[in-house]
Amino acid sequence: MALSSKDIVKLLDLLNEENLDTTLENLCNQLHQSFPKEERFKVGTVLLLQLQQVDLLPKHTQRVVALTLLFDLYRGEPLASTPFASVFVQMLKSQEDVNNGSSKPSSHTGHIPFLSNCEKNLLVNLMGYIQKDVIKKTPRQIVDEFSFSTVPSIDLTNLQLQLAEHQSELPAVSKCGNPIILPDMDHSKGTEYDAATVRNIIENLATGDPPLCRQSYRPEFLRLVPPIYHSINEIAWFHITEPTQFTVEYDPSMCVSNCVSFEARKLMGKAFKNVLTLMQQQNLIGELEKDPKLVYHIGLTPPKLPDLVENNPLIAIEVLLKLMQSSQITEYFSVLVNMEMSLHSMEVVNRLTTTVDLPTEFVHLYISNCISTCETIKDRYMQNRLVRLVCVFLQSLIRNKIINVQELFIEIQAFCVEFSRIREAAALFRLLKQLESGDTGGLNAPPARCRTDMC
């Protein structure tokens, strides 16, 4: 991208001869206020274009302003890291190439801006230690003071080394090429353009994508066409002259999906994220009943089980029942035991224990995790709610003789004592004492129900 026509007009206004008596510091501040940081390179390209084309910027005061703006464009950044640092070095390197006492190199082509004695003096001072003093002066003062004074020497060795190090990282192709715009170095014509013509020329050269001032002639990187490799087992390609001589063998069943399997996978994908409607649950369970092996092809994996349990516990129960003979059932049990305790996870475990024989260690570990969760939770309301759920869950397991109370007696009794303030815990404690005394009549009594039903 390039500067817009409006931006070019704003930039040319800063170079106007009317700014003869405005300090360079003020003009630089106006530049930074008019253009954001991301536009700096585009602005610098236009300034450099005008410094290269002497006929577009003939006045000494205008060139002084343009040179100062270009130097101050990347204010606050190390000079070696700015994109125009190499241009400043090339401008000052022409001392050795003078021709018959003039300051113009004999082989000068205009690619690097040609600086007068005044402009070279200005650039040396900007790169030196008195930069702050220089920019406080006006363009008129700079021309009056520096036009006839000797250009002081400056050591560019350190800057050149930094630039060489940076440029060594660039590919060779990016460091070659000539600009497509060549300046007219014959100044004997004495042609001067008015402001409107200059603006029109600069707009034509500096706009476009990419603009002409940023294009260059460079060697084209040619890639040779690789030779054809002939293999012994190479498949021969037949150029068919009579298509009717050949018939295409096509498998009509290829890429045709199993509609039933597809619908089941689609419903299961929804079940991981949202609660299915009653009809959707019935359809999915019906498909699983028709084809027991379908459960292995609907996208369920152990890591996805917690989402299924929380959103659709009935589907989770049906699926786990059909996976009981699977080699992965241990992994599913492990995930179920270690997932966050909730009403739905208890519902799934409770239904599984009443339907199939679950491993004893799995049931014991789940009970221990539930008790541990109740003891560690900080929220008092949530703690009371979970304790009620666990108590109802344990009573259900005990009354259905799913667990051997004696194996977990001490742990469950301590749990009841700790939460004896809760009615369901007290009821569970009484049931334990009845069983301990040999009274099995309590097993036939209906379990205490909490407000959140297990089913």
From TrEMBL:
Keywords from the named record: Cytoplasm, Nucleus, RNA-mediated gene silencing, Transcription, Transcription regulation
Any Gene Ontology CC annotation: CCR4-NOT complex
Single GO BP term: regulatory ncRNA-mediated gene silencing
Predominant place of localization: cytoplasm
Pfam families tied to this protein: CNOT11 (PF10155)
Cellular localisation: Cytoplasm; Nucleus
Family per similarity comment: Belongs to the CNOT11 family.
Identification of the protein by name: CCR4-NOT transcription complex subunit 11
Annotated organism of origin: Atta colombica
Organism lineage: Eukaryota, Metazoa, Ecdysozoa, Arthropoda, Hexapoda
